[in-house]
């Protein structure tokens, strides 16, 4: 993160606090989050999309403190379950600034959202349109909705693929007229108000061309809706997905650059179609949370495998970062607790789980004198690490510690064996 630097003694510091001190106070493994960096990234998005709405995607990482920062920095929040909704409300996000997502929201989740006054629910199926309409009418309200459109663009990491039919579970397909039919049904529903269209094409994307194709196709549907129904929808949401740097090879785009290119395309396409440009909104998750945090681990064992590499085992693993095992994600790692002038040694940083796929960093060069007791920092773990953490092997999930102005405070505490036993009521 922006605030992590080595001191003259070679010890990595966050906001001026040495990691050795952080480890002594909070234990390892632990996630250390640079609060100023989080706020600065949130602000950069809000400023880049001035006049548009930025909905931080809570699935990347959510806690009450995060919700408070978002409120203070003027962002909205996208949630995708009843649990995230509960945290959002508990953290003080006004319900009208919330969006609810999901391809299979339960009736209870839909009802909770309607009752709380959630500003927009992104509908994802015909069944949901019917269910939500009934829930809203029973309560005598009109619920604002966006229709999630599958535009036929699937973007993954460095490239995007445009296909006629996406073989996946989300959204209502543009091709074949499902999206247009969903729009018809929402417009006919007395309990629903159609606010606009939504598209999300993927995650960890560097190539903005995928967003541009999506924007053009969504505007195309806006024009069809105008022609068929005589209504011009006021908003399009182009989702999240902007990639971050996990390794030096990654070259992320800037939110301002995305805002400019999307704004321009939407403007141009709307002009061509004779539409007033709709309000644009976006849902960045990883791009805000990801770079703000590093995970700190303590080395327990060092096992050289002749002619292969050295296995460096740390005190966490796939339970605090599943992304390497699940997506073959690439991370980097540094020796954080001291300087070393030892030569680099091909290493694999692995966890303590009973599984050989329990890899945190597949290929890394660590100083050859790395030894038990050393602290290792893995950067860019702020998104989809704590939020996807598990209790595999009954490990307790690590805390999240926010550092600001040289002060560190726990925002999500470490789990304890008692927490785990409390659920075990047999
Ligand atoms: N909006 C919608 C509707 C989404 O489904 C997502 C992410 C986002 C926004 C935020 O996307 P972001 O800006 O964070 O890329 N667990 C995976 C990522 C799953 C993303 C799911 N949807 C990972 O660890 O890479």
TrEMBL record:
Q: Which PROSITE patterns match?
A: ODR_DC_2_1 (PS00878), ODR_DC_2_2 (PS00879)
Pfam families per record: Orn_Arg_deC_N (PF02784), Orn_DAP_Arg_deC (PF00278)
- N6-(pyridoxal phosphate)lysine PTM positions read 59
Among its keywords, does the record have Amino-acid biosynthesis?
yes
InterPro entries from the xrefs? Ala_racemase/Decarboxylase_C, DAP_deCOOHase_LysA, De-COase2_C, De-COase2_CS, De-COase2_N, De-COase2_pyr-phos_BS, Orn/DAP/Arg_de-COase, PLP-binding_barrel
Q: Among its keywords, does the record have Amino-acid biosynthesis?
A: yes
| Annotated GO biological process | lysine biosynthetic process via diaminopimelate
Question: Where on this chain does pyridoxal 5'-phosphate bind?
Answer: 241, 283-286, 384
Binding-site residues, substrate: 286, 323, 327, 355, 384
The prosthetic group or cofactor this protein requires is: pyridoxal 5'-phosphate
Keywords, comma-separated and alphabetical: Amino-acid biosynthesis, Decarboxylase, Lyase, Lysine biosynthesis, Pyridoxal phosphate
Do you know which PANTHER family this protein is assigned to?
DIAMINOPIMELATE DECARBOXYLASE, GROUP IV DECARBOXYLASE
| Family of this protein | Belongs to the Orn/Lys/Arg decarboxylase class-II family. LysA subfamily.
- Designated name of the protein: Diaminopimelate decarboxylase
């Amino acid at each position: 993160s922006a605030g992590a630097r080595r001191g003259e003694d070679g010890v990595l510091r966050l906001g001026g606090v040495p990691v050795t001190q952080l480890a002594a106070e909070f234990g390892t493994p632990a996630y250390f989050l640079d609060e100023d960096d989080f706020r600065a990234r949130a602000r950069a998005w809000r400023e880049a999309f001035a006049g548009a709405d930025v909905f931080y995607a809570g699935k990347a990482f959510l806690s009450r403190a995060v919700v408070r920062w978002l409120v203070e920095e003027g962002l909205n929040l996208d949630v995708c379950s009843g649990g995230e909704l509960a945290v959002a409300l508990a953290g003080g996000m006004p319900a009208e600034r919330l969006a609810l997502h999901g391809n299979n929201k339960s009736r209870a989740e839909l009802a909770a959202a309607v009752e709380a006054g959630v500003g927009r629910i992104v509908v994802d199926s015909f069944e949901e349109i019917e269910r939500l309409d009934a829930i809203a009418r029973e309560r005598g309200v009109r619920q604002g909705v966006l229709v999630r459109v599958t535009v036929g663009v699937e973007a993954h990491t460095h490239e995007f693929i445009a296909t006629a039919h996406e073989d996946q579970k989300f959204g209502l397909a543009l091709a074949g007229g499902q999206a247009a039919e969903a729009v018809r049904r929402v417009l006919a529903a007395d309990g629903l108000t159609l606010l606009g269209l939504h598209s999300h094409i993927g995650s960890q994307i560097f190539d903005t061309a995928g967003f541009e194709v999506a924007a053009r196709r969504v505007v195309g549907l806006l024009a069809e809706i105008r022609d068929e129904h005589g209504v011009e929808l006021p908003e399009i949401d182009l989702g999240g997905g902007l990639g971050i740097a996990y390794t030096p090879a990654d070259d992320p785009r800037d939110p301002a650059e995305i805002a400019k290119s999307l704004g321009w395309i939407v403007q141009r396409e709307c002009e061509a179609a004779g539409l007033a440009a709709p309000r644009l909104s976006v849902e960045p998750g990883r791009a805000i949370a990801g770079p703000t945090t590093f995970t700190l681990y303590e080395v327990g064992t060092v096992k050289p495998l002749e002619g292969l590499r050295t296995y460096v085992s740390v005190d966490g693993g796939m339970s605090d970062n599943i992304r390497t095992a699940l997506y073959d994600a690439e991370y980097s790692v540094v020796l954080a607790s001291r300087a070393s002038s030892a030569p680099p040694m091909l290493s694999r940083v692995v966890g303590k789980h009973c599984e050989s796929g329990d890899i945190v960093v597949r290929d890394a060069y660590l100083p050859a004198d790395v030894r038990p007791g050393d602290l290792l920092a893995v950067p860019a773990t702020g998104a989809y690490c704590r939020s996807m953490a598990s209790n595999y092997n009954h490990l307790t999930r690590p805390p999240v510690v926010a550092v600001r102005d040289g002060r560190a405070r726990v925002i999500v505490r470490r789990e304890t064996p008692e927490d785990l036993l409390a659920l075990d009521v047999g």
